[in-house]
Specification:
Length: about 375
């Protein structure tokens, strides 16, 4: 009996040392192309640890971020809300950042110092990132707290603006006007966790506020999103000149962002259009006088759902197209008989899951050049 137990233990130890039971860390790359002049950086600027109301140790957050393909992460533990304070000594609001710094460096994750100001509505919760010291944000008056962040050069954004609002629809209060007019509110979450706020998206476009989307994760990330089924956390895409903290901060203040949420990209036309154009390659050949075969290759990780935006005389083309992520789709364009083939056909579509405003997809043109296949 003892020999049998010893054999089982030996097999178990050998399996562990040879990796049979332990999978090495691997990274799922986010295949969203760079745009002209800028790198596309995937970022999450809102996450929590046990040093406020989260349920993981700080070192876990950058490792999760690396595995999911992110480039930058901010740990933004609450200043005012500390439910674990009886179990964890919290006398320094920079501590979670300091604990995670070495792990972030190991994984080449840009770790951004941050904190969440936790106030009733109005004005609600705000994140401040790119500070030197989070401790100075511990103020009784929310205006003094935000000013203390701004005085350090922080980028400040309004979190989950639908929080504690009827139907989670954001409400703009005079307090928000004052913060914006003072230059103390730079961004706004249009996506937080699984909530999307079309009204906040509208405000960002109207008031020139930087568009932000974050996870606000509290539990281990795999408990919040099912990666096996293809889910991912919401994230902010930042278009920066280089992968540095300085360039990331400059891009946020300049408003060069979009949000990647599920199958959707949300942002301004000038950023979503070059992403689509860099992702999609159109190749066509004509082996029949009345039919053109069109191959559409999508090299990104985002599926593009296209709907026809008009008609073309003497030309028939699909009303709907889905360009699956990382795949090539074959489509057909049909020409009317006894008509000469045009040198170029421009197919008008709207990409319904690339939103440039609430309920407004990105208009695009697919250029088909008929050539005879050899």
């Amino acid at each position: 009996m003892r020999k049998a137990i010893a054999a089982v233990v030996l097999v178990f130890i050998l399996a562990l040392t040879q990796g049979s039971f332990c999978q090495p860390n691997d990274r799922t790359e986010i295949r969203i192309p760079d745009i002209p002049g800028y790198l596309t950086l995937a970022c999450d600027f809102h996450s929590h640890t046990v040093f406020s109301d989260g349920n993981v140790w700080p070192t876990i957050r950058p490792e999760e971020a690396w595995m999911e393909g992110l480039d930058a992460l901010a740990i933004t533990d609450h200043i005012e809300y500390l439910p674990h304070k009886d179990d964890i000594k919290i006398n320094d609001f920079n501590r979670s950042f300091e604990l995670a710094r070495e792990t972030a460096a190991q994984y080449r994750i840009l770790l951004i110092r941050g904190a969440e100001l936790t106030r009733d509505m109005p004005p609600g919760h705000f994140n401040a990132i790119f500070m030197q010291d989070a401790n100075v944000l511990e103020k009784k008056d929310y205006k003094e707290a935000i000013k203390a962040a701004v005085d350090q050069g922080a980028f400040v954004f309004w979190n989950h603006p639908g929080w504690r609002q009827p139907g989670t629809v954001p409400v703009w209060h005079p307090e928000h006007t004052e913060l914006l007019d003072n230059g103390w509110m730079h961004g706004m979450e249009i996506v937080n966790d699984r909530e999307y706020y079309p009204k906040a998206f509208e405000w960002c476009l109207e008031k020139n506020i930087t568009i932000i989307g974050n996870s606000d994760v509290h539990d281990p990330i795999h408990m919040a999103w099912d990666f096996q089924s293809g889910e991912h956390r919401p994230m902010t895409l930042v278009f920066a000149t280089e992968k540095t903290e300085k360039a990331l901060k400059e891009a946020l203040f300049a408003g060069r962002t979009a949000v990647y949420n599920g199958k959707y990209l949300l942002g301004r036309d000038k950023y979503l259009r070059p992403i689509f154009e860099a992702s999609v390659q159109v190749n066509s050949y004509q082996d029949k006088p009345t039919e053109i075969n069109v191959q559409l290759q999508n090299s990104s990780c985002v599926p593009f759902e296209l709907r026809s935006a008009g008609k073309i005389e003497n030309v028939s083309f699909p009303e709907k197209l889905t360009l699956h992520a990382g795949k090539t789709v074959l489509s057909k364009v049909k020409l009317e008989e006894k008509k000469p083939s045009p040198k170029e056909i421009v197919l008008p579509y709207v990409v319904e899951n690339l939103l440039i405003a609430p309920d407004k997809g990105l208009p695009v043109q697919l250029k088909v050049t008929p050539t005879t296949q050899k």
